[in-house]
Amino acid sequence: MANTDNEKQSLSKEELKERRKFRHQLLRSYTWKAKKYFIPGLIIEAVATAANLLGPIIVGKILNDQVISAAKQDGLTFYLQLLLVYLCTMVAGSLLRYASQYLFQLTANNIGRMVQNDVFNHLQLLPISVFDRMPAGTVVSRVTNDSNALKVLYAQIITRLISALIFAVGIYISLASLDYRLFLMALMPLPILAVVFWNFQSKSSRYNRKLRAELSELNGQINENIQGMEVIQSLGREDRVYNDFNRLNTSYFETNKRYTRLYAYSEESIIKLLNILVMAAILAYFGHASLTGSGDVPIGSLYIFTEYMRRLFEQFTMAMQRIGNLTRSLGAADHIFEILQIKTETYLDGEIEDLKGEIQFQDVHFSYIEGEPVLKGINFTLEAGKTAAFVGATGSGKSTIMNLLAGFYPLTEGDILIDGQSIKELPVLSLRRQMAMVLQDPFIFRSSLYRNIALDNKEITPEMAAEALREVGGARILDRAPEGIVTAVESQGKGYSSGERQLISFARALAQEPRILILDEATANIDSETEGLIQSGIKRLQAGRTTLMIAHRLSTIKDANTIYVMDKGEIVEQGTHADLMAMGGLYAKMYEEQSRSSRVA
User: Fold this and answer.
1) Which of 284, 408, 476, 507 is the most buried (most CB within 10 A)?
2) Are 509 and 541 in contact (CB under 8 A)?
3) CB-based contacts of 413: which residues, under 8 Å, 6+ apart?
């Protein structure tokens, strides 16, 4: 999130203007979607305000001489009626305020739910390249923490500011109808308050952006240091790490102190001082009018005015607090809406029928970063049902070939043909459903064995999932599972060895019955004891399928129909294992080195 805040500071005025415009459009859109709660809440809030403002007027009438005189002439009836009306208005105001706040909370919760659903759905349609530059922790924070901050924006900020506005308008309307002199006096502090609010909003916005950036950097350093604590302690670097943390923490403290000073000055000093000055002015005015007889201002009117001013400045104080929180919440809203601004992938509709699985790469070039080619003119043809293996040093482009085949990135140049048809003209979602990828570090969900294999595919029954696990060599997993295939599995597959997790991912691939199989370093983290089971599982998976393998252990790919040796984004050698060994080139050297290392070990 620090990066986001730094980026925001570097944006041009036009870009900031466009971002704010997009934010306002979405806020209006979500507010309209939640109108069935929001609009009744506003109406009830207005009625509740009117009821609350009626109370001081009733008390003022009770205090006025003419009402007291009327009470003496007519008995206590009129007086008691006023008290009853006062009690009813206060109770009604409280009940209505409860109803309006309940509806505003429903509005906030409903908007929070819609935003989380929309963001999560949007994330699933984003290109993989987006997640390459956006850490998972940042994405999770935006879906959860920032969406909660958006709920706060509606529940405690926007609705409260609207309530304060309704209250202020109601007070001024009441004063104007009661006595124009009181109305004019109440207007006097408004210009000064406008300047105070503008100054507070601009400075608090700047401080809040800096606080978010510093807090993000502070959290990042804490997370990094905790994860690397073993290294820090083993090298005796505690003092240096502490000093770095203390520097960041002190900077965060100083920024917070400046923000606190601004808050105390604006709310506690200026607003309260204005309140005191207005009250002093009105008391002086009433006192002078009373002593000189220059104006007839009833005591009840004085009470109404002072009570309204007290409530008005309470609303100003509350609004100042909410404006301070408004910047933080709008920053969180920007974090969410930035995700919604990212363009999603567009896919062709339709299904691929009778996919055979023939693959052709035709002069494929690709760069993750412009000007830094990763693949340089890749050409090969893999017949349906055959196996191709790709070997080479880290960064040679092996995994990129698999990512392009799955349609995760657009090609820079060239084309990929599936059964003779360009991948650009195929419905990619349908193509992916007929592919299966087994990665070096298989992801195991916190669920059950069955759901981890079926992935909620209703066509795969528990019996089919169990059979798939047995077929790939996972019988021992089922044998010790207390509830069989529906046994619960912890997050990341805790309690299972790396080999067992890989077997579960093999069963997942087999159960989907893919036409194209991609194995990306599937045996890299497997111990020699488990390797036999893994190899049997791979053979079962490969049967009748077009298979592309990335392998570090060259002994596992000797049976591949074609082995492609890659170096710096190019295919430098290709052939069977026997062909490549006979060449005596790069592959032969790699194989001999691994064989030598294996014998030494």
Assistant:
1) 507
2) yes
3) 363, 364, 365, 366
